[in-house]
Amino acid sequence: MQDSTIQAIAWHDDHIAILDQTRLPGKEEYLICKDLEAVAGAIERLSIRGAPAIGVAAAMGMAFACLQDETSDSDAVMAHLEHNAERLLATRPTAVNLRWAVERMMETARGALPEGVQAVKERLKAEALAIHEDDVTVNRNMGACGQEIVPETATVITICNTGSLATGGYGTALGVIRSAVAAGKKVFVAACETRPLLQGARLTAWELQKDGIPFELITDNMAGNYMKRKGADVVIAGADRIAANGDAANKIGTYSLAILAKEHGIPFYIAAPTSTIDMSVASGDDIPIEERNGNEITCIRGQHIAPREIKVWNPAFDVVPSAYIAGIITEKGIVRAPYRESIEKLF
Question: Residue 183 and residue 213: Cα distance in Å, rounded?
């Protein structure tokens, strides 16, 4: 199977190009980002989303802004970088890859500082491009590890979008599916539509269609009936942050999906790079959960579908307790319970 040609983000000398995922599948349109605020805004409004892709965007945004910085004073450059880091970290609080990438860029800048401002700029650009390239490699390795849990003929249920759009390329949970197909397995996907912004219906369906992988779309609240009536062999989801005990935060609806999978005897897996594991967080109870504007539920494409001025609760994520997870697929292999011990071994 050919690699996906979908590119969520790309570096150019005079701008960063971000595929506007809020316009998909209707329009394939790239945002031309020429400053850090444009990148931060793209992250906030979900023009680019998915934990790994957000990390790549943040790294590129910091590097690009530094290259545009005309000051030659080292202290001023570092102050600007600190300010930009804070702006980016405020965009999406749940995805730990964002903080991981920002901290990696700040560490790179501090290491290059003794060599001068130009060295800082050059090193940051190289680091941002390396983060992008490394993410693709990590996803490929993750897919190779994870496809082993997919039977030769399988129905796989997934939620949210975890493919090339959500990463530097290839994908996490969808990358596992793509690797299984590439290995010659006959895979059929049931894709949940997924709030917020119906990311499964708009984005996962679009990617699966482009890759020629057979699938059907279901609403999130059909998953239990689907398992009962049609059956499934495995459920694979991504994650935006994984706690040290294996609890995993992912798009809202994943918790329900895990409970349903357990009730129907279907193994539930998380696929995420080790950069998504936050060892500073003891359990899922400590993961910050982003709450988004209620208009994302009451409106579709700017059209109200619910009464105006009503109360809406719109958390973007929920947390799957590790007890529901059969394994966490990473680029270093599949870790299983007891998760605290097996995760510690990864690091």
Answer: 13
Whether the per-residue pLDDT at 3 is higher than 90: the answer is no
pLDDT of 2 above 80:
no
Of 99, 122, 140, the one marking the end of a domain is: 140
| Domain membership flag for residue 2 | no
Q: State phi, psi for 212 to the nearest 5 degrees.
A: 70, 25
Q: What is the pLDDT of residues 145-193, one digit of tens each?
A: 999 999 999 999 999 999 999 999 999 999 999 999 999 999 999 999 9
CB atoms within 10 A of CB 263: 11
Per DSSP, which regions of 181-275 are E strands? 186-192, 215-218, 234-237, 241-243, 248-251, 268-271
Q: Which range marks the domain in which residue 86 is found?
A: 9-140
Q: Contact at 8 Å (CB) between 35 and 84? A: no
Indicate whether 85 and 135 sit together in one domain.
Answer: yes
User: What is the Cα–Cα distance from 233 to 66, expressed in whole angstroms?
Assistant: 48
pLDDT digits (tens, 9 = 90+) for 26-52: 999 999 999 999 999 999 999 999 999
> Is 20 known to be catalytic?
no
Residue of 220, 240, 247, 278 marked catalytic: 240
Of the three residues 140, 173, 190, the one that is the final residue of a domain is 140
pLDDT of res. 4: 54
Task: Give me the CATH number covering residue 119.
Answer: 1.20.120.420
R_g of the chain, CA atoms, integer Å: 20
Q: Which residues, including other chains, have CB under 8 Å from residue 344's CB and lie 6 or more apart?
A: 244, 279
Give yes or no: residues 117 and 260 share one domain: no
Domain check: are 200 and 128 in the same one? no
Cα–Cα separations (whole angstroms), residue 211 to 177, 189, 231: 11, 12, 24
| Angle of the 51-68 helix axis to the 117-146 helix axis, nearest 10 | 170
Q: What is the CATH number of the domain that holds 223?
A: 3.40.50.10470
- Do both 32 and 173 map to the same domain? no
